[in-house]
Amino acid sequence: MARASIPVTKIAKEAGVSPATVSRVLKHPELVQGKTRILIENAIKNAGYDLEALVKQNSNNSNNVIMVILPTIENPFYNNILKGIKTSATAHGFPVIIYTGNIDSKNLSNLLFVSKKTCVGGIICLGRKLELPIANAIEEEIPLVQCCEYNKDASSVYVSINDYLAAKNATNHILNLNYRRIAFINGPISYNYAQERLRGFEAALAEREVTIPPNWKISLPEVSYSLGLSAASQLLGTDDRPDAIFCAADVFALSVIKAANRYGLNVPRDIGVVGFDNIEVASIAVPSITTINQPAFQIGFTAGETMFERIRDPEAKPSPILLDTELISRDSIIPFHRKVKLS
What Rg do the C-alpha atoms of the chain give, in angstroms? Predict the structure, then answer.
């Protein structure tokens, strides 16, 4: 009698593909490209296994769930990304589950255990940039798409923006409005986006030969209104204060506006503010916030479609995708006119 269980790793080695591809053929053969599917099916048959029984057995426990890894549920920036992912997943008939937290060597085994128990067919990671061994370990077991944060050396594909160029463009906008005393409130420097936005900010200043005090570049441990308010108060509660503040998140920009009000300063007359992300509240704040628009919904939807491309053909290597950003000019910053002291 033909056998009905199968050593996936052995068949993968025989067919010259990954174990994830073999699993995909057994669970969703209709989603795998014909050439790859036929190669694996022949390897299974040649090894003496009952292909029909295996497909039936595995289809009863099909991996048809998409897992999204979120670093936190408190940052409103992720809302529209999730909407984009869910729109794509719904169109393909896959439910979405959320795993909260950043992935490292300490919780990798738990992630993979939960993924197996919940029949996860693909993971979209929005958390902190994955270390190379971690990213490759996930990819070996389950198709992985890195979203926003990414390790460019990993074998998995990523969907994001060019944070360096976006931050540089935002800083140049501030400089073009004649500001030179510019501070920067940034997110956790352990995140790739924070490193790249800082690099873009510094590059724009360097090209104009503008120097600022080192303590005007603040990196906070998380994107939080309360932490942003504390940082903004630190910058504005002194006579030697900046004339403009570039914020790596709109949440921080809202904090700056609040702090300015506390110190009797008017935005934009006394202090210019530029944010990043273009979350919904940025357009309805008073004043409305000039910001860098991240196409959050498009980022999420593209990540979802990229995932389903991976599911259809696990051996395919889609190209990395960096989506365009744009500066949205609103009311939180105006041209700066230097005050001339009269003797």
Answer: 25
Residues 268 and 232 in one domain: yes
23, two tokens? 């699993």
- CA 195 – CA 94 distance, rounded (Å): 34
| pLDDT confidence bin for 53, thresholds 50/70/90 | low
Strand (E) or helix (H) holding 257: helix 250-262
Burial track 194-214 (b if 16+ CB lie within 10 A, e otherwise) = bbbbbebbbebbeeeeeebee
307 touches 68 (CB < 8 A): no
Query: Does 196 reside within a domain?
Result: yes
DSSP 186-202: E--TTSHHHHHHHHHHH
Do 187 and 155 fall within a single domain?
no
110 phi and psi angles, rounded to 5 deg:
-65, -40
- HSE of 115, CA atoms in CB hemisphere, 13 A: 21
Are the CB atoms for 210 and 175 separated by under 8 Å?
yes
Residue 144, domain CATH: 3.40.50.2300
**Nearest alpha-carbon partner for 141 in 8, 321, 38, 319:** 8
Q: Which residue has the tokens 């110190």?
A: 263
**Interval 70-89: pLDDT, tens:** 998 888 899 999 999 999 99
Q: pTM for this one?
A: 0.80
Q: Are residues 190 and 263 in the same domain?
A: yes
Select from 86, 100, 155 the least CA-distant residue to 304: 86
> Does 148 share its domain with 94?
yes
pLDDT in tens, 252-311: 999 999 999 999 999 999 999 999 999 999 999 999 999 999 999 999 999 999 999 888
